[in-house]
Each structure stands twice: as C-alpha cells, then as structure tokens.
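Translate sequence into structure tokens.
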Amino acid sequence: MSLQRLLSVMRKGVEKYKMIKDGDKIAVGISGGKDSVTLLKLLTEFKKFAPYKFDLVAISIDLNFKENPMDFSPIQKLCDELGVLYVVEKTDIGEIVFDLRKETNPCSLCSKMRKGALYDVAVKNGCNKVAIGHHADDLIDTFILSLFYEGRLSTFAPKSYLDRTGLVLIRPMVMIEEPLITAYSKELPIVESKCPANKQTKREYAKEVISQIGTDVKNIREMIFTALTHPDRYNLFDKFESEIDKF
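Result follows.
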C-alpha cells in the first residue's frame, strides 16, 4: 500500500476539519496496534511537507497486565528511527478493571481510564492536542454501536475540545478506510495486544453485523460513511419539526 495514497487521504481530512495548526504540540496515542502505529508514521511524514510547523510526542499507556506484560520495545525502536520522543506511562488499569472490579464488560471503563491517563501525560509533556488512530471504519462501527446499544444516532467527531484538560482531540485518519491501513501496516512494527477481552467486544460484533450485510450490499460501509459525513443526506424528525410551521 502506497504511503503517498494514505498521506493524501489523511491530509484531506486534516485540512477539511482544521485539525492541525502552526505551533501545535501533538501527543500521539500509541496502543501498539496497526492503527496507532500507522498514525504515528503518517504524522511524521506529513510533518516533513505540511504548510505549518508542529511537534509530536508518542505516548503509550501500559495497562500493566502482570501475567502477560506488553513489550513496547519495537515502538521505542521505531520512535528512535523517526526522531520522535516516546513516553510509556505505567498504570494499574489492568489490575483495577480485571482483578479488583472484575468487570463483565470491561471495555467502557478501561477506555475511560486509558484516555484519562493519556490526556494527563499529554498535558505533562506540554501538548495542546492529542491524536488517536480512529479511521473511517471506526466511525461507522461507533455509529452502529450507539444505534444498537444506546438507541442513539451518534458517532465521534473528527475534532473535539476536552473541557477538563483544555486539550483538543483529533482523529487525522477519520477518512481512511481500514483495509488501506491494514495493508500498509504490514511494513511497521506492531505490538500484539495482551488484553484478555481482545477480539471479544461489542465493537467486534458490530463489525460482524456490517460484514454480513455487506454480502448483499457490497458498498455498505461507503453508504453509511456518506450518510454520516454529508449534511445534505440528513433527514430526520428534528429537521421536520423545525420546518413544520412553514407550511
């Protein structure tokens, strides 16, 4: 997969949603998986020709699975090669979620604690923005999860302000399809997740549902993405109510 193709799509999203400005210091959240490592590589390359100057700090939150620890050394080596400062923050999140709380659905609590730790480390390192590796397929899967489990028509924003920390959260790969990332990431060092709940989540179920529909509707993901990102495709009841007195 061409690096230039990925950079072209990412740049389109970054510029459309004004994600990066001159003087930004961006913390890149690195789980070690294909999405976050690809994001780090893309931002490092983008920095070379972007029309504005910005700095990067790569941050990994070690959940500290004592019986099955994560090895972040391949990420450290990559960051050394890229010339990016790398910070690994050790936490007790794994023990709290799985051993103390014994959560039956651990993903929600783990996600909140992991993000909180990431934001705190970003602030400590003087960052004003945090970039995470959500892509176009994550946008769609989040929409399906909200619809099925919360009864909401909702998904994440490409850029959002975090009141508690004063940080701006950005998702530079929001327009990139997951298969493109998967193909490119084969060239990068990927650290396997040690989470006991890995591949057993509601998000995986959402992917399976969309995949099943895709056997009949071949471009199902493209259709959902278009519906979510084009305002002219929006036609729900609140729109009707705002216009009801016009006729």
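Note: The two ends are 53 Å apart (CA to CA).
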